[in-house]
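Propose amino acids for all 273 sites.
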């Protein structure tokens, strides 16, 4: 049976302040939190969620961010195959209902696994852990950058973390990802990011040293699967665990200053800066 050790959905109105001279001085959002756990047949699962829903902006902007939040939450449920999850989350009217449903879906999945373990006679205790944080991390008078970080542990040697970030334009909610760059920017951009990862993240200077840090061939160095995103000091790039390097290397990332990438950005992306 489910043993609810700690459960709660709470909301708090928050504002992040801009460290810039832009007209917009803060971005208002409401953080909705959920924390719960369950125990079944000696197995335990814990779930913690913190999501910041926008409090203002155009209807298109708010709708765009809320749907992205639902998609990120659905994607974080790595052991659930349901293409309709995001739509089912966003169909709920209140932000607190969305967060509560995400948490319950996570724990219901764990309970289903634990029941299967019991039927199979698996007596060794298994602990699951889920955490999801989706919050705004940077904004100007034209856009906001949201960050989604999820962690899932389903037993084994270690859990897995996924970090996805996106840029939303305030005026209409448009999401900017790789389309912030020109279509022909790929090769030059890959070289710039490669240099940033090599020197800024791994702190090495030679190709041989760099190759020793990677799981991929540095001569065919790929751009990240995850979208790039705007931060105060430049465009940020992040690779997921195992994408280019071993688990112990973490999640390689670097920030490239805007002036270095200016010629590769589209006019629409430049207009945000």
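Proposal:
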């Amino acid at each position: 049976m489910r043993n609810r050790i700690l459960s709660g959905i709470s909301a708090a109105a928050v504002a992040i302040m801009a460290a810039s001279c832009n007209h917009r001085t803060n971005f208002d959002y409401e953080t909705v939190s959920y924390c719960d756990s369950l125990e079944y047949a000696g197995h335990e699962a814990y779930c913690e969620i913190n999501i910041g829903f926008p409090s203002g902006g155009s209807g298109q902007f708010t709708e765009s961010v809320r749907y992205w939040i639902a998609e990120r939450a659905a994607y974080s449920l790595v052991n659930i195959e349901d293409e309709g999850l995001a739509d089912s989350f966003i169909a709920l009217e209140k932000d607190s209902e969305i967060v509560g449903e995400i948490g319950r879906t996570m724990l219901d999945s764990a309970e289903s696994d634990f029941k299967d373990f019991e039927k199979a006679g698996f007596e060794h205790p298994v602990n699951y852990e889920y955490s999801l944080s989706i919050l705004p991390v940077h904004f100007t008078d034209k856009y906001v950058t949201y960050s989604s970080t999820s962690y899932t542990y389903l037993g084994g040697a270690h859990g897995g973390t996924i970090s996805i970030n996106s840029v939303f334009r305030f005026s209409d909610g448009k999401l900017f990802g790789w389309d912030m760059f020109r279509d022909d920017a790929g090769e030059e951009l890959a070289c710039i990011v490669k240099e940033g990862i090599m020197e800024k993240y791994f702190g090495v200077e030679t190709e041989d040293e760099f190759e020793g840090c990677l799981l991929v061939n540095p001569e065919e160095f790929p751009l990240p699967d995850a979208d790039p995103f705007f931060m105060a000091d430049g465009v940020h790039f992040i690779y997921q665990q195992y994408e280019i390097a071993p688990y112990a290397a973490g999640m390689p990332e670097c920030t490239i200053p805007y002036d270095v990438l200016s010629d590769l950005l589209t006019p629409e992306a430049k207009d945000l800066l």
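Strands lie at 8-17, 26-40, 43-54, 127-139, 143-153, 160-169, 175-176, 229-231, 234-238, 253-256. DSSP finds seven helices and ten strands in the chain.
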